[in-house]
Every structure is written in structure tokens, then in C-alpha cells.
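Q: What would this chain look like folded?
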Amino acid sequence: MSRVPSTLRQRLIWALATFSAATALLVGLAIWSSDVLLEDAAVRDLMERELALVAGVSSGEDEFVRHHTLRFYRSQTVPDAIRDLPDGFNTHVFIGDRQYHVLVKTPSAEERLYLAYDVSFIERRELALGLAAVVILLLVTTAGVFTAQWIATQALHPLDDLVRQLERLDPERRGEQLRLPSAHSEFTVFVRSMNRYMAELDAMVERERAFAAAASHELRTPLAVIQGAAETLALTDTRPQIARIARAVNEARHQLEALLALSRVNETPALEQMEMPGDLRILAETYLHDAPTQTQLIWDAPEAFRIELPTGAIAVIFTNLLRNALRAAKGGPVTVRVDATAVEVLDEGPGIDPGELPHVFEPRFRGRDGGSGMGLYIARVLAQRLGWELTLENRTPGSGVRARLQFRRATPGGGARRG
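A: My prediction, written as C-alpha cells:
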């Protein structure tokens, strides 16, 4: 089931869980600190009153036990552990293995009074309180995580619904709209904006398809007339210009079919048997006639083999790569490598500026050799539609460009396979 990206969900869960844990920790620290401060204040007040009372009751006695937790000493019999304590309230003093708070007063130069209050049981209670606070903190944190997961699920449910709707959208189905999740009016603006955008996109696609259909109808007829006339002339006229016209018309027909396929997203281009590298040689002849006379086209290919490919797409992609290579070579050699998996076109021109290389497939990008800026863009779109990989790279600095069209096995989206 499609859901909102997990990173958003996890951030929301951890934010809520962390907030719960931090709140529980702060509350626990506040309770524990309040308990400690109140106990210290109560003990201090108790010892002040008890020291005044015990000093009067035990006059003449060096040691007096008021309670099993309270011990009174005069300076003559005071234990060594507390003898040198300063006047005032002293905390966490050990006498043997017991912990005391000790109140020291010096009523005269000859006498010091000590009242020791055994706080071992208080320390044990505070330790137990601290452990209980830790356990409660762990329980609150665990409960916070599960609560945060529930809250995140409830909060992101409408987004999950919208994500599922978006994933089910089909570009071939016109008029689709997103449904607003009930009781979630906060998404009204988003859903309405998306639906308005989708409606405008549908209208634009319909206009483009209508134009493509009209262009196809208007162009196919004159191309068929030119092709028929060229074939008729070829019966009695052997001039190379007639054959060139026939090749150009055939290439234009393939390119028209390939470009029209771009407007049909889910349509699988028809596969045809191609003779390699012979059919590529035929496509290349038209451009060799326009290249400088010294241009040398080198074919690096195995023996002839047959392969099933969308002929129109191959014509568009290969001729674009070859035209760019011939233009960059400026009369130098151009090499075409062909096998059952890929076609490579290599030139020995100056190469592509490294700063321009990432942008060569962008629409309307023109390099140093000019051109319309659309050829490589169209070639890349066709290759991606068929599940192929089209790359351009500099061979070595200043030694030309390698353009590679990598075929893949036949898939529902189209691909290459040995015939």
C-alpha cells in the first residue's frame, strides 16, 4: 500500500515521542527536585527546633539520644567525623556507615553543640523514587512512541489517500480528478489546485494530439506523393539526386512516425526486422552527400545480422548522432561501431566543453557546432521511452566525442533482441 514517504512519518513519530519523553523527564525532575528541597527544608527546620530543645533537656550530658534518628553531642564527646564541621547545617556527613545531616552551633567559646540526624532512610527513599521515575519515564516513552505512531497514522491518512490517487493516475485517461478526503478541509486548496492544473494539462495534451494528428495527415500525403514520384523517376533516370530524394523521403517518414509516437505515452512502437549494419549505411548516405568530400565514414561492425527494433526511433536517434558527429569532425573521420547490443558514433573533433556536457540533452541547447538544439533532446526522449540508454562523453580531452546508444532486451516498453 502506498503511503506518505517514511521520512516524514518517522520525523513526526520521533518528534511526538521525543516531546512526550522530554515532558515526562522534566516533570519527573521537577517532582524529584521538589521532594529533595522540601525534605531538606523540613529537616533543617526540625533540627533547629530539636537542637534548642535537646540542649536544654540534656544540660550536663555530653551525649543524648533524642530519637533513634537524632543524636546530640557536646564538644567533649563528639565523634571525630563531625568534630571539625563548620557552624551551620552540614549535609551528607558519614558517621560510620550511616549518613547524617549535622547542625553545628557554638553558643560560647568553651562549648560547641552538634545535632546529627540520620538520613539514611531518606536517601534510600530518594533512590527508590529516582528508580521509579526512571521506570515511569521508560513506560511513558514507550507509550509515547505507540501513541505517536497512531497520531501520525491518523494525521497522514488523508495524505496517504492522495498519494494512492496520484499513483493511480494514467496520462492516457483524460478528465481524471483527485477526490478530497472527507472531513479534511485543510487539503481543499491543494486538491483544487491539483485538479485545476490537471484539467489545464489535459486540455494542452488534447491540443498537442490534435496538432500531431493534423500534422500527420497533412504531411503523409505529400511525402507519399514525393516518394511515388521519386520511384517513378528512378525507373528511367539514374541520376544520384533521384535516389537521394527517395532516401530523404523515407527518412522523413520514419522521423514523422517516431515523433508522433512521443505524443502516445502508452503505445508500444512497432518492431521491425532491421539488417545491420546495412540499414544504418542507407540512413547515413543522405548525410554523407552533404558532408565535406574528404569526410571518411568508418564502419566497425561484425558480419551482417538481423535485429528487431523500432525502425523510426532508430532512424531519428542514429541520424541525429551521425549528423552531430559529421558537423563536429569538419571533414575528419567518423567511426560507427555496431553490434547486437549497441550503436556507437565516434568523431575526432574538438569535443564538448566540460561545462556544457551536462546540458547537451536539454531542449534548445546549442553547442559550438550550432544546430536546432532539439535533435539530442528528441533522441534522448525516444531512447528513454524505449528503455534504452543514450550517453555522450568526451573520449579524451580534445580528441572527439563518443555517443553510445545501448539497447536492452525486449520489454513491454520496447527494446532490442536478436532476430
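Residues 245 and 391 are 31 Å apart (CA to CA).
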